[in-house]
Each structure stands twice: as structure tokens, then as C-alpha cells.
């Protein structure tokens, strides 16, 4: 299993360490050519403005858009912003996930927080996942084909639309690798977006 | 959201924000226009201050925390994180910056120290701190006080990278030394360098500092920034180097790209081309001791 990690800026080394612990090969992605032969792609946390500008300079943004049309992509925090179809007060970047996000919606760093999450589809469903929210984006709209996998105070914080996964929190900063396992299972299942679908409802249970 | 967090969670969140800065460039800005230029160039955060270090040097006198009004203007102008500086040991300036709502505080030797014996007890704050260091002992003392991020001191406002290189190499060499050391030598070594032994054990286990470590002080070109990344730094602060140069917007963009592509000389050659004049600078070696900011802090 070869999984790319967007390595323009941000916490990409933490995801690489998580993948190494799960016997998956982590490939840093800085240029469009680096996407070749990957089974999936992780867009890590960092500053979305910085990442999207760097991606735009080399055509990596359109290359990732094409990649995500076929194969699994997981966006974390800033990565979730890159995936969103709509961003409040900004143009969208990849537009692979039918949601609207508001950046820094919870406020500045002193409003960053930790919350226990129950993410549907993970192993050991009764065991909470430590959700680390750092200047996190808020999801203000979910399209019909988007499943909400976890919520905090009624707000969606983990989402899936076919082979696209998003989380507003940072599992790579914890020792709990269940989200990474979940994404690797999506990569094993392959790109096949056939079972996905925009017409399925909210209540669909994640198959993993 | 006003969630309450305990000390362990606060530490995770504050070290975590620094992890999100990695591979990025944090730029000094003195007004909202500069902050927007920095954000547009791809900076991962900005440092709001009234004068860049080169101007602090030129002006002389006492350098203090900036006016909260100008910091708020910069916070309103950009969506990326905003940092601000307080004087070493000046915990009231730090409380003011915390109340203003900045995302990070730099307890900085660039300002005139308020306390020549003690740094701020940073663990008592909700807002995270970054501090400068010249060697491993100094880095670990700051972390013991609660710093969630470390940077080299370098020699700010000179445009001369030599001190940042010295400090980065000294810290990295200290880490290698600790990793190679048999465990029975750790306690004595902790005493020798004035660092808590628990943190030394962590360094030995991790093979690196337990927090993010950026380069700072004298970075003026894309090549300087890439050099610091090769020396094992997680990212780069650029102070006077951008807005004291001939074409700040262009240079800012080039330095951001240089940190991402530091290992690709062909890209570095391309982005270093036609940048206009760098800041003129002053050789750090020619400064007398009263003008060496790096010597401030203990």
C-alpha cells in the first residue's frame, strides 16, 4: 500500500509516522509527478492558504483534483478546507467534498479544544477517539451524498462521501491510529467510486 | 467555543499548533498591508510588531511590546495565525497579549529584556509561547518553563545567517551527543548544561527536541531558508529580510517556496532569480557585545 501525503507545508511527518506503524508506505507529495502509482492521498493539517498557493504554482492542485476523482483522499483540518466544495469568503480549492466550511470558525488558538468523539465505522466503536481541534474549520453545510461520521455539539466533524474522507480534528497528534486504519481500508477497497454515491442518504453506515 | 482544557490538553493543543507551522515561513509584519502581502505569499503565520529588528537596532533605546491596537488591526486583516512579542520576563506584557487573543507569544530577545534573571512561567498561560535558544540546555530550560515551540536566536536584524547556523548546529550536535550517551551519564550532563533530566530523557528517546524547532535571526534569502531546513530546522522565521528588501512580495513568495522545495536545487535556482536587492545587512561579527541580541536570555 503506497499512500501519498501532501508535503508542501504542515504536519505531514506525523501522518508518515502513523502510516509506518501500520506497514503502509508513506510518499511525500510536492509535485504532480509524485502522485503516480499512489493508492490514496492524505492532505494534512497546516495552513490552507499556504498549501493552496504552493499547489497552484506547480499545477499540483489540478493534479490532485484529477487524482481525487478516482482514488481515496483524506483531508485533515486544513486538508478538509482544501477538499470542500465551498469555503466561506474564499474560492474553493479542490472541490472534492460536497460541504461548505468556515475557516477558524471556533476562534483563535485559545479557543482550540479537545473533545471525545465517537466516529462511526471505526474499530472498537465504544472507545472514544480523542478529537484534537486546533483553529479548526466548521462544516456549515453537508450535501445529500455526504455521510456524517462524527459530530461535536451538533456540528459534523468527520465526513465521508464515497472515497473522500474529511476530518476537522487531528488524529495524527494522538497515539490512536483507528482513523488511519479506516482510511487504509478505503485505499484497499480501491478507488471504485461505484458504491459511493451522491444519492445515498445521511443515515448510511460507513462500510470501511 | 470556550471549552475548558486541562494542562495536558493545553500542551497538546499548543505544541500541536506549532506542528501545523512546520515546513512554513513566519514573517515579521508591521501593519495590515504587510500582513496581507505575507498571507498572499503563503506565510503560515505572521509576527505583528511595531518595528522589524533592523529598525529596532537602528533606533536604539528600549524596545517593548507593540501597541495592542496595531496587533488587533493585523489580526483583523488576515486569517492565518498571528504572533506577537513580549520582553523576556515581562509576564504582564504576556498577559496583555493573551487578553488581546494572539495565537502565539514570542518571549523575545529582540525586545529589551525586562528581567535579567528569570523568564516567564509560561506553563501558567493558555496561550502558547515560542522562545529563542543558542544550545540544547537553553532550549530545554525554555521548554521546562512551558514553551510549546523553540527557535534559534540567530542575530536578528542583521541579514547575516551565520549565528542562526551556529545555533542550529549547536542544538543538533547537542541532541546527537545525548542520543549517543549511556543512560548513567544523563544526570551529570543535565547538571552540566542546566537542563531538566526528564527532558533530556525525552530528547534521547525521540532523537529530537520534544517541540517544533524553527530557524530565526538573519535569514534573508531563499538559499538561507533552504540551508536552515537542511540543518534540521522544522521551518523558518523571517524578520527584517522580507520587508527590508527591494521587492518584498516577490522575495516572500520565493522564501516560502524555498522552505518547501529546500532539497531541489533546480527549483531553488529558479526562485532565486531576479529577486532584486536583499536587505543590505550588517555582518554579525562586527557587532559589539552591547548590540548582540542573541546574548540576551539565560
What characteristics describe this protein?
heterodimer; A: 208 residues; alpha/beta; Rossmann fold; seven-stranded mixed sheet; three-stranded mixed sheet; B: 298 residues; eight-stranded parallel sheet; globular
SSE layout and pairings?
The complex is a heterodimer of chains A (208) and B (298).
Chain A: E1 2-6, H1 12-20, E2 25-29, E3 40-43, H2 48-58, H3 60-70, E4 73-76, H4 78-83, E5 84-87, E6 97-102, E7 113-117, E8 129-133, E9 138-142, E10 147-152, E11 155-161, E12 164-167, H5 178-189
Chain B: H1 7-21, E1 25-29, H2 32-41, E2 45-48, H3 53-59, H4 68-77, E3 82-87, H5 91-100, E4 104-108, E5 129-133, H6 136-145, E6 149-152, H7 162-180, H8 186-193, H9 197-206, E7 212-214, H10 222-230, E8 236-238, H11 240-243, H12 248-260, H13 265-271
Parallel strand pairs in B: 1-2, 1-8, 2-3, 3-4, 4-5, 5-6, 6-7
Helix pairs in contact in B: 2-4, 2-12, 7-9, 10-12
What does this entry look like structurally?
- The complex is a heterodimer of chains A (208) and B (298).
- With 208 residues, chain A is of the alpha/beta class.
- Chain A is built from five helices and twelve strands.
- Chain A has helices at 12-20, 48-58, 60-70, 78-83, 178-189; strands at residues 2-6, 25-29, 40-43, 73-76, 84-87, 97-102, 113-117, 129-133, 138-142, 147-152, 155-161, 164-167.
- Chain A has a seven-stranded mixed sheet. Chain A has a three-stranded mixed sheet with strand order 5-6-9.
- In chain A, helix 1 links the parallel strand 1 (2-6) and strand 2 (25-29).
- Chain B is of the alpha/beta class.
- In chain B, 44% of the residues lie in helices and 12% in strands.
- In chain B, helix 2 (32-41) links the parallel strand 1 and strand 2 (45-48).
- Chain B is globular and about 55 Å long.
- The model of chain B has no long low-confidence stretch (mean pLDDT 95).
- Chain A binds chain B through residues 7-14, 30, 45-47, 49-50, 53-54, 57, 77-78, 103-104, 106-115, 132, 134-135, 153, 170, 173, and chain B through 1-3, 5, 9, 12-14, 16-17, 19-24, 39-45, 75, 79-81, 98, 101-104, 126-128, 253, 256-257, 259-261, 264.
Amino acid at each position: 500500500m503506497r499512500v501519498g501525503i501532501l508535503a508542501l507545508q504542515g504536519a505531514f511527518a506525523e501522518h508518515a509516522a502513523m502510516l509506518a506503524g501500520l506497514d503502509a508506505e508513506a510518499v511525500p507529495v510536492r509535485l504532480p509527478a509524485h502522485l503516480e502509482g499512489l493508492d490514496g492521498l492524505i492532505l494534512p493539517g497546516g495552513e490552507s492558504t499556504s498549501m493552496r498557493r504552493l499547489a497552484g504554482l506547480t499545477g499540483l492542485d489540478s493534479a490532485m483534483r484529477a487524482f481525487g476523482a478516482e482514488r481515496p483522499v483524506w483531508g485533515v483540518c486544513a486538508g478538509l478546507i482544501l477538499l470542500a466544495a465551498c469555503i466561506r469568503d474564499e474560492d474553493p480549492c479542490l472541490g472534492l467534498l460536497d460541504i461548505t466550511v468556515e475557516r477558524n470558525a471556533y476562534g483563535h488558538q485559545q479557543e482550540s479544544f479537545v473533545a471525545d468523539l465517537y466516529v462511526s465505522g471505526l474499530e472498537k466503536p465504544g472507545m472514544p477517539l480523542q478529537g484534537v481541534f486546533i483553529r479548526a474549520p466548521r462544516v456549515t453545510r453537508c450535501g445529500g451524498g455526504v455521510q456524517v461520521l462524527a459530530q461535536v455539539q451538533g456540528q459534523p466533524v468527520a465526513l465521508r462521501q464515497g472515497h473522500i474522507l474529511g476530518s476537522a480534528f487531528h488524529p495524527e497528534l494522538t497515539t490512536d491510529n483507528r482513523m488511519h486504519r479506516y482510511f487504509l481500508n478505503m485505499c484497499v477497497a480501491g478507488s471504485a467510486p461505484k458504491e459511493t454515491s451522491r444519492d445515498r442518504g445521511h443515515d448510511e453506515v460507513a462500510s470501511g | 467555543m470556550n471549552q475548558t482544557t486541562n494542562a495536558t490538553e493545553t500542551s497538546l493543543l499548543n505544541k500541536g499548533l506549532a506542528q501545523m507551522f512546520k515546513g512554513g515561513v513566519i514573517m515579521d509584519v508591521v501593519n495590515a498591508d504587510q500582513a496581507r502581502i505575507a498571507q498572499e505569499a503563503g506565510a503560515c503565520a505572521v509576527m505583528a510588531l511595531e518595528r522589524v529588528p533592523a529598525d529596532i537596532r537602528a533606533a536604539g533605546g528600549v524596545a517593548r511590546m507593540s501597541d495592542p491596537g496595531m496587533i488587533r488591526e493585523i489580526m483583523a486583516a488576515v486569517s492565518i495565525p498571528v504572533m506577537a512579542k513580549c520582553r523576556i520576563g515581562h509576564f504582564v506584557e504576556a498577559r496583555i497579549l493573551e487578553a488581546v487573543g494572539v495565537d502565539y507569544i514570542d518571549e523575545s530577545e529582540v525586545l529589551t529584556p525586562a528581567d535579567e534573571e528569570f523568564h516567564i512561567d509560561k506553563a501558567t498561560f493558555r496561550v502558547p509561547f515560542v522562545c529563542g535558544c543558542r544550545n540544547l540546555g537553553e532550549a530545554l530550560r525554555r521548554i521546562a518553563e512551558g514553551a510549546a515551540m523553540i527557535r534559534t536566536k540567530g542575530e536578528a536584524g542583521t541579514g547575516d545567517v551565520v549565528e542562526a547556523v551556529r545555533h542550529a548546529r549547536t542544538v543538533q550536535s547537542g541532541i546527537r551527543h545525548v542520543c549517543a550517551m549511556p543512560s548513567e551519564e544523563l544526570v551529570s550532563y543535565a547538571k552540566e548544561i542546566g537542563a531538566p533530566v526528564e527532558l533530556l530523557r525525552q530528547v534521547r528517546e525521540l532523537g529530537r527536541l520534544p517541540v517544533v524547532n524553527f530557524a530565526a535571526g538573519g535569514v534573508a534569502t531563499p538559499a538561507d531558508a533552504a540551508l536552515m531546513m537542511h540543518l534540521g530546522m522544522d521551518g523558518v522565521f523571517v524578520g527584517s529580510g522580507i520587508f527590508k528588501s527591494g521587492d518584498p512580495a516577490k522575495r516572500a513568495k520565493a522564501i516560502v517556496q524555498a522552505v518547501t522545495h529546500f532539497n531541489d536545487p533546480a527549483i531553488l535556482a529558479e526562485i532565486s532569480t531576479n529577486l532584486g536587492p536583499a536587505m543590505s545587512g550588517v555582518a554579525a561579527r562586527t557587532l559589539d557585545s552591547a548590540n548582540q541580541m542573541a546574548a540576551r536570555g539565560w
